[in-house]
Amino acid sequence: METVHQTKNEITEGVIWKQLLLFFFPILLGTFFQQLYNTIDSVIVGQFVGKEALASVGGSSAQIVSLVVGFFTGLSSGAAVVIAQFVGARKEETANAGLHTAYAIAAAGGIALTFIGIMTAPFLLRLMNTPADTMDGSLTYLRIYFAGILFVLIYNMGSAVLRAAGDSKTPLYILIICCIINIILDTAFVLLFHMGVAGVAVATLTAQAVSAVLVTLKLMRSDGILHLSLRKIRFHGSLLKLQLKLGLPTGFESVLFAITNIAIQTAINTFGTDTTAAWSAYGKLDAIFWMVSTAFGISITTFVGQNYGAGKLDRVRRSTRICICIDLAVSFVLVALLILARSLLFRLFTSDETVVQIGSDMLLFITPWYIVYVFIEVLSGSLRGRGNVIVPVVITLVGVCLLRIVWLAGVLKISPTIHAIIFSYPVTWVITALAFITYYLWQNRRYRHRSSDTVR
Question: What pLDDT digit, counting tens, does each position of 173-207 carry?
């Protein structure tokens, strides 16, 4: 029999816009500090080591890391949706078993990826046409990162579980602590010990290890619905199947995004180190928008997951609409700030005027289209919260990934320019957003018809 917890759940009972924002801001700040890990790496090596080091940290190696981490972040979201629905339904024992299954997934995945990543790193970098003058640095960074990939997966899974239970503050506090550690170690290893790319990689690995330990300790010391016991970490068959059912499609969706970004990075690499360095720096500024978008996506997934589990479908629909409106307002402001401050922002990474000019041009060309992506992020997050993950993945596969690959294959033959390559982003965003809006509205009509049939 399931234990029933009687305290009020603000996510399923509180004022929607207020609870969304209260949940959103800690996630946003946490994502900011998580992004600051790699951004600080890029700033320090770009300013004190050189543009080759900047390209090594933020070029091909960053895309490979994004692919791997993105896949397991997708798995984490699957576990989070399952746990959020059980928390919303107040099924404590099942939610706790889901926690231990989630940790088993992270541990097994981390161990496997450590060996696979270290061995395949040279092949992956060559496959991406990594410039010769950045190959050694990229390989060093990538191998050190994979040596500590277990810590990354444990932190991501642990923080996803905490957010599923409604705690978005603890992951934030942990990231603030670890970001400070990373900045101190980056400075020491690069400026004092002159370790270059290896220095920032070791600093990042150390900080990620601390974050994994802290999130695990938090769950072990919890006296609430989700208490972690290391001895109980194992796969629970039915819950593992359910978490993989929801997590694998989302994980593959992240992989598909990463693969298309790798294809674009491969094309960008053919334009030389200046363009690669500019794209690397742009990727860090681009992340300002994505961390906001991701925070809204995580917020609506958890919010919808708990309300769907509680059977409150009206709150599911209303929270989705409210989240879209808030995200649109924030995105308009971000786009304006990025455009106005583009030159100043690029000079944080490098003093090379050619790199600054190329990067500023890239930013001006792409950022106005960020507004369109709001609909993709929020609607796909809302659908995932309901347990609907297959169709969003298919829409993403066709609308973003396949069309972008087709675009690249055609454009590179007709007009092999930077603008032609990166225009694949807005084109595929518009098509995918329209598909998500159409599918979401159709799904809402189905839910209303089911509700009215039940009433009759």
Answer: 898 898 889 889 988 888 888 888 888 889 888 99
405 close to 260: Cβ distance less than 8 angstroms? yes
Give the lowest-confidence range in 13-27, 233-247, 336-350, 380-394. Answer: 13-27
How far is Cα 181 from Cα 178, in angstroms, rounded to an integer?
Answer: 5
Contact by Cβ (8 Å): 77, 164: no
What's the rounded mean pLDDT across residues 118-144?
84
pTM over 0.85? The answer is: no
450 pLDDT band, cuts 50/70/90, is low
Give the per-residue pLDDT at 259: 76
Report the alpha-carbon distance of residue 75 to residue 156 in Å, rounded.
10
- The answer to whether the beta carbons of residues 102 and 234 sit under 8 Å apart is no
The one-letter code for the residue type at 254 is S
DSSP conformational letter for 350? -
Please name the helix (run of DSSP H) or strand (run of DSSP E) that holds residue 182, with its range, or none. Answer: helix 169-187
Q: Which residue has the higher pLDDT, 62 or 119?
A: 119
CA distance 387 to 301: 10
Task: List C-alpha distances in Å: 11 to 122, 166, 247, 320, 378.
Answer: 46, 8, 22, 13, 17
3-state secondary structure of 7: coil
Which tokens hold the place of 247?
Answer: 């997590």
Q: Are 146 and 4 in contact (CB under 8 A)?
A: no
Tell me how crowded residue 13 is: count the other CB atoms within 10 A of its CB: 12
Residue 374 has pLDDT above 80, yes or no: yes
**Using CA atoms, how far apart are residues 65 and 171, in angstroms rounded to an integer?**
21
Lowest pLDDT segment from 46-55, 321-330, 341-350, 413-422: 46-55
Q: Which residue has the tokens 């270059």?
A: 196
Alpha carbon distance 440, 447 (integer Å): 11
**CA atoms of 332 and 373, how far apart (whole Å):** 12
Is 377 in contact with 296 (CB distance < 8 Å)?
yes
**Considering only CA atoms, which of 422, 421, 435, 424 is closest in space to residue 402?**
424
Q: Which of 162, 4, 170, 169 is nearest to 83 (CA)?
A: 162
Contacts of residue 158, Cβ cutoff 8 Å, sequence gap at least 6: 103, 106, 171, 212, 215, 216, 218, 219
**In sequence order, which ranges of 5-131 are alpha helices (DSSP H)?**
10-13, 16-48, 51-58, 60-88, 92-127
Torsion angle of C-alpha atoms 289, 295, 298, 303, degrees rounded to 10: -130
Per the listing, tokens 């220095």 go with: 199
pLDDT, tens only, 66-80:
778 778 877 887 777
How far apart (Å, rounded) are the C-alpha atoms in residues 44 and 63? Answer: 19
